[in-house]
Amino acid sequence: MGLFDSLTNMVSNALGGEAGGTPGAADIMGMLQQHGLGPDALIGQLQASGLGEHVDSWLGDGQNLPVSPEQIQAALGTPAVAAIAAKFGIDPSEASALISEHLPAIVNQSTQAPDPDA
Fold this sequence. Notes:
Layout: H1 3-14, H2 25-34, H3 39-59, H4 69-76, H5 78-88, H6 92-110
């Protein structure tokens, strides 16, 4: 599962899944890509926004550093966060909070090598 599949599934699950007209993962993926937020671009943007130490912790084996909703808002930019919020019918601050809560684990999990015994 890719980084953005994980992110969109997380947001969808946090909002009760696809019930009630919540867009599916493909809808969100397209929206994020329209904002130039493919996996490599996202990591690069976070690093360029001063969150390099955070991203490194998410990619490494140690403990993940937390990131605040304000840091997510600043790193991703208002248009991207507002678009995510609008798609889900939530406030942009709630969207930033959901992303900041789950993004470290999502990046960590999506960059780990699969377990050959699994």
